[in-house]
Task: structure prediction
Amino acid sequence: MSYVVFVGGPIQHAVTKGSFHAPTRGLIEQLLLDLEARGLKTLSAHRVEAYGEVDMSTEWNAVSRRDIAWMRMADAFVAVLPNDPGGGPMRTDGTCVELGWASALDRPIILVRDSAAIHSHLIRGLAAVARVQELEFDAVARDVGLVHEAIETFRAAERSGAQAQAQA
Result:
């Protein structure tokens, strides 16, 4: 059975003047390709919605049903939280909802963000209540393999936990 990774991030607020935020698109595209090349299955609204080109403005029920189903299928969630052109966190309401789902479903979470950006307390404190690995956005942009390394760290912990339970 293939390991499933749901990759989320902004769509609506990443599109300005008909163009998707280039650094975010580049990182997500490279990340998806890297994970797939390593044999992982990916789930991505960015691909399904063609990075904002598909009009989903009246499809909120369908998007919500799809994304919660994906989260239930996923073994891990990667949240890409870029900065906006002004240097602050880019608005991404859907990703924040998905972070809540991931933590409630006890999915490992990889946050890809600029740690110097002032995110909400609930994002900055998420590791207090969920399994979270934070990676710097710029570092991942240079080496998307860092996300796979984080996933493998979670997988190794899950395997050792399962072995410990089996021995008990």
Notes: The mean pLDDT is 92.
